[in-house]
Amino acid sequence: MKAGTSLTVMPVRESFLSAGRLRKIGLTITVFLAPFVLYGLFLLCYEVNPIELYWSMLKSTFGSLFGFGEVLLKATPILLTGLAAALPARAGLINVGGEGQLIIGALFATFAAVFFLDSAPSWVGIPLMLVFGALGGAVWAGIVAVLKTAGRMNETISSLLLNYVATHTVSYFVHGILKDPAAFNWPYSPQISWQLRLPTITGTRLHIGFILAILLAAVVWFILSWTKLGFNIRVLGGNKLAAQRTGFRINWMYVWVLLAAGALAGIAGMIEITGIEGRLRSTTGVNYGYLGFLAAWMAWNHPLRLLFTSFLLGMIAVAGNTLEIGSGLPASSVQILMALVLFFLMGIARRLRS
Amino acid sequence: MKKRNTGWSWKTLVAILAIIVTITGCSQSGGSSLNGNSSSSSGESSAIGTGGSAVGFIFVGTKDDYGYNQAAYLGSEAVEEAFPDLKVLRSENVPETAEAERVMEEMINQGAKIIFPTSYGHLDPALNVAARHPDVVFFHQGGLITSDNVGTYFGTIWEPVYLAGVAAGKMSKTGKLGYIVSVPIPQVLLNVNAFTQGARSVNPDATTTVVFTGSWCDPGQQANAANSLIDGGVDVISQHQDCTKTIIETAERRGAMTVGYHADASSLAPEGWIVGSVWNWPDLFVDMTKTAVDGEFKGSIYDGKYRGTLADGVVQLTDFGKNVPEEVQALVEETKQKLLDGTVHPFAGPVKDQAGNIVYEDGYIPTIDELESMDFFVEGVIGTIPQ
Amino acid sequence: MIITDILTGALRSGTSVMLASQGELISERAGVINLGMEGSMLAGALGGFAVTVWTGNPWLGTLSGGLCGLIISLIHSFLVLSCGANQLATGLTIMFFGIGVTSFFGRSFVSEQIVGFNPVPIPILSDIPFIGDVLFNHDPLTYLSILLVPVLWYVLFRTRLGVIIRAAGEKEDVLFASGINPLLVRYCAVLAGGFLAGVGGTQLSVAYTHSWVENMTAGRGVVAVALVIFASWRPAMAMVGSYLFGAAQALQLTVQQQGWPISTFFLFMVPYLLTLAALLIVERRKRSSMPEALGNVFSADAGG
What we know:
Chain A is an all-alpha fold. Chain A contains 14 helices and no strands. Chain B folds into two domains: 130 residues, Rossmann fold, CATH 3.40.50.2300; 189 residues, Response regulator (Rossmann fold), CATH 3.40.50. In chain B, the strands form three sheets. Chain B has a seven-stranded mixed beta sheet, with helices on both faces. Chain B has a six-stranded parallel beta sheet with strand order 2-1-3-4-5-11, with helices on both faces.
């Protein structure tokens, strides 16, 4: 199956612009452009001018502070759930539970905000909510971890199934003890207190959560690339058998990696609540988990490349709204574009790896 | 072997980010013009809602659902026809989260000064966007909170639902009616209760079995629910779902009768259709748009909580199905007249809940606000409200 | 009768899952896991529905639905088998793609009516009290799906074709040495799986609900994949698992109708929790009966 992978600690660095690297860069760029071309052809069949769409996508993203803020707003949870997928992937696990971990994190954070923190000052309340959010996500991922290590259940399937369970769990709470008494019996939580909301950047809806997300991405990258723990994780992901023979405590590592991933997704949930939503609904954060997964795989599960891919997906997602308002094509059609990008990337995976 | 590529990607990434930051730093801040179609910048204070080149509609589902969103869509078409100078912008499947804010902002960006957020959960986003754009008028469907430039509208749909209940109570042979709903929000409980009150006014032993599917449109669940109810002896099915087709067709296939909601779907159930309750949004939307365009929103009936009634024609009963006998139709007509002239009210006390406690005292008539925050089932309803 | 209702409901809602899980079983026996079954099911649901709308013939619809499911799984098999992409990640992308593509193309079909499959009571047999209603009062696709199980079992375990399929999953070098290309076998297996998933989707739209709504499979494809593992890759157990899932869905309705005070939201979770529990319980047998090639998928290098 896999050819033996050698584990060098200090890799031999090729010169920056060797022929091989140039070819690979060229290949990556072609592969990134091809889906846009394909999608463009697809749009043409529906009398939508793809050049106009792509241009307006770029213009609204980079042409105004508000537009840029909107893309960052979308990219932030995608980045975090992307990390939640990428980190375990480096250890050889496939965690698709970002969706559920995000909303349970949001649940814990909202619970804390509503029941304990509503008169806490910002500098106490917000960090505490962060802790709760991370805790919620970690607990949810913890279920996956336990099922994997004690029950030997595949984490992809268990995390996928738990996503559906998570939505219903949140529904249970927003219809029950978390229901807003002032909302005439509609099923969502009360608004969290004003001082618990994240500050925003004037002129946009963007909140400072994006800085936190970027920081976390940097932290994850640092750990993976520059620490012994990260090295161990990558070894585990590269060759489980070798890791076993070297005496790694594999189950222990799996658990911690999954807990960390869950915490990241849970933080995304908390950021959604404190940053823009303000209250918890059963539809909060829907789809971000899957988008994060896509972003992670587009970035080959590398935290820094993830910054770029989550931004790209954010741009495409925002473009979807413009597409629909302008042309009547459903906004969900941009999911096709996203999937196309990933198909192409996966298609050349082996060639890039060699 | 990803470590080999780390250096390259890291440097490239930093370069890309630097370029991005530079570009945005040099671009205009504050303004959000996409097509150069910026909002009116005239110095004089113009009335809110005027001066726009478009009207925006956002829907929570698809327009072809034979139900909730289709009804709203028809309203948008009427506006399109009545105001040929205004471009109608539409966005379907807009979730009830802050995402909706983005869509509304984009519509305002494209020149809309009037926005119709048509789902209850769009209220929060609408209020937020409204606060940022005081010159835009928002007509929100079903909301219970208003603001300076956000008015909410709805219809007293429980009135025709009550009448439909009367018809169902008369037509049912087993006395067992069924109601398929999604989640226990007040609007839903209100409809189920009105239906039951109507049925029990002609058949005091009639019962309504309620099934929650948890979703506004999941055909698999809907088919399960309909089949299950019919297996249990129910012979008239009604529903409060966004898409109504599956349930109606399933009932028709199994020989059960149908009471419709949101839209006239009698073509789907030629034999079993009894009657349905529908919205008349087209006339209302056109009037609301006209009020806004003429600059008369402030102080109008739409500035605040507007509730159209049966008398206003905002909510209506459809035609009867072909198998509904004359005397039932006449009875419903008669009851309708009594509703209109106030001699009968669906929830006039005494009204008891499922446990037998009196919720509305004898002679008490609940206000619209109270009805719209209903949180119990009346006697005769079988089913528990999920807590 | 409560039990009859639950059992009938189990068959009614479980059939689409069952078809998909039988298809996934073939694919996994050959060594390929396809999480994109959800996408194949949706494609089948839409394709089958659309063709039935256009031609008025539900059988043509079923065939087309199967083909649509097959086409989706063709993407998966190409990426996984010829490009060497990670099976789990590709499958998930396919799922996402399938949801996007079908909600796009399906817009115009949401309000269409069709002459679909209706329940066809089998004469005499359906009058038997209790089991008559449960087993013999369903649509043709459900009958076919029940017949599929013994047929599949026979093919897999009693024919040469079955040996070849299983060899592709267990001992591919031996297969290769005997002159058959395991890659080709895997391709065919995945395509067959996609076809069955497509038919499962068609059953949902053309036979059971007579409607199309976007994302109408609501996770059934995912559950199908899980059930194959639960079933230890045996057709009969996959059938049991699928009907168990269907029963859990039917149970939720029965509980509500009887007025029992169990939280509805908990009931909604039950089908998925049940699947998880079932997976947990049969864990011990799993390791030994998993096709070898699959074992490599689950421990393969997941980092790109």
